[in-house]
Amino acid sequence: xxxxLLKVEDLSKSYVDPKGRRVxxxxxxxxxxxxxxxxxxxxxxGCGKTTLGRTIMRLMEPDTGRIWLCGEDFAAKxxxxxxxxxxxxxxxxxxxxxxLNPRHSVGAxxxxxxxxxxxxGARERVAELLDLVGLPPDAGARYPHEFSGGQxxxxxxxxALALSPKLIIADEPVSALDVSIQxxxxxxxxxxRERLGLAMLFISHDLSVIRHVSDRIAVMKDGLIVEIGPAxxxxxxxEHPYARSLLASMPxxxxx
Length: 256
Prior knowledge:
The model has no long low-confidence stretch (mean pLDDT 91). It is built from 9 helices and 10 strands. By secondary structure, the chain is an alpha/beta fold.
């Protein structure tokens, strides 16, 4: 049996909201992702799915729990060891403009992870990545404001792929885009997954998007995973009452 690429054990995270109330964003979340697998995480706003992605990425520190990445305790790493381990996991955010530095050229944005990690041949790698995500060679000399939302998300994806990670955490990567552009980015993600053998944690509030890209689906509610299983089974025959109501109430993208 293949060892999991990512293993999350009993992950918990709480914080105090602006009104002074303690919010339990994650409550003992556990799951695994195999190499090359896409796990879709779906749930309503406030269910904890974004906190889950950011905590796994170590942008937020968990209160309790373990995060195993490539067989190593990712949650216990710090300093140089954490920096090195982060080569294996990268994140694509919801807002393709807010996540890109408007003062830097696209080439500099994509090259930044390579420079931070001391990789040689940044210029050649940037050109390769632009081609990989379907952008013209001259895009590297331009700035984020010169591109559409879909093109900016392609730039963000290229940056995430710069270090050839094994795992991508995608947090609502198409929700800020028009439906017609969403399908283009989803097709790009599916193509990259197949070509590069990527594993993904794909977070979305939209089950139709999740079904398009996922091998398995995890349904979240109030900081808990209430159901997890193969995408076809969860989509066609959800077992948990909340999963059933979520599936029945959410709008879906029209079939292609």
